[in-house]
Amino acid sequence: MGKKLSAFPITPCSAEGRVDVAALRSLLAPLRDAGVDSIGLLGSTGTYAYLCREERRRALEAAIDEVSGRMPILVGIGALRTDETVRLAQDARAIGATAGLLAPVSYTPLTDDEVFEHFSVVARESGLPLVIYDNPGTTHFSFGLDLVARVSRLPGVIAIKSPAPAAPAVAPHLDRLRHAVPDGFSVGCSGDWHVTEALIAGADAWYSVAAGLFPKACLAIVRAAEHGDAEEARRLNAALEPLWGLFREHSSLRVVYAAAAILGLTDAELPRPILPLPQEVRARVAETLRALALS
Asked: In the predicted model, what is the mean pLDDT of residues 206-220?
């Protein structure tokens, strides 16, 4: 089946949270033209948690129209309440999304049984294929192996997006996941600066923030790993280390917003209360983009 690259773009919006459809289309077109394997719309990079149902619909409708069926679209459907998540999943299915990225968004910390029931209800009542969206950095909930095993066997749950650990732990992490999920279940990773080793170790997919702006550079890594050329994949990844360093230090979300503005793609700002990077850090981002010839 080969390895897959799923590109996660930002969602340009006004200060009031209204999606800038024209700007979103301008970000999606290069991803379509580069031939990424899927688009991860309204992921954490796409600030789904800050958008109302109507704006999420507008974003997905624009994306579906822009890619014209040339690649799958995975869309974030997370919400605090199960009934609201069901409605978002139903919207996504009706508009034409391929699958829903479901993170267990919470205020009160959730138990494993509560997350299992959440997935069960959303899958059953929406009919939308679901990807387990394990993102403890934002949700503060981590999927243990027992819960992954339970959720992955629900009808309609088709894949997991798991944060990749550092290189020494990647292979054991993937091995444990493989033993927890059914045969043929897609095991993919996020955390751009760790994912090359995950791809080399056998991950099926890279769910990538950087690919939302720089699809060609990320596709080159995926294809090298797919062809078994670990040395080339590592070389390409090492060349991007200045970008990964910025991601680690300032968060990939803040950095890609700054990069999009520097490249003249959109002047949209992050949803408050998240603040843009200070000017001295933006200057570092600009210099990194020039040095790496990223565009």
From this structure: 98
Task: Write the CATH number for 121.
Answer: 3.20.20.70
Question: For residue 113, what are the domain limits?
Answer: 4-227
Has residue 181 been placed in a domain?
Answer: yes
Residue 8 has pLDDT above 90, yes or no: yes
Please give the Cα distance from 7 to 13 (Å, whole number).
Answer: 19
Three-state helix/strand/coil letters over 90-125: HHHHHHCCCEEEECCCCCCCCCHHHHHHHHHHHHHH
**pLDDT band with cut points at 50, 70 and 90 for residue 295:** low
Instruction: Give the total number of structural domains in the chain.
Output: 1
Helix (H/G/I), strand (E/B), else coil: 289:
helix
Residue 108 has pLDDT above 70, yes or no: yes
In a domain, 264, yes or no: no
Whether pLDDT at 68 is above 90:
no
Please check whether residue 283 lies inside any domain of the structure. Answer: no
Q: Summarize pLDDT for 11-33 with one digit per residue, the tens.
A: 999 999 999 999 999 999 999 99
In 42-185, which ranges are E strands? 73-76, 99-102, 130-133, 157-163
H or E element that contains 186? strand 186-190
Question: Does the residue 277 lie in any domain?
Answer: no
Per-residue 3-state assignment (H helix, E strand, C coil) for 202-269: CCCEEEECHHHCCHHHHHHHHHHHHCCCHHHHHHHHHHCHHHHHHHHHHCHHHHHHHHHHHCCCCCCC
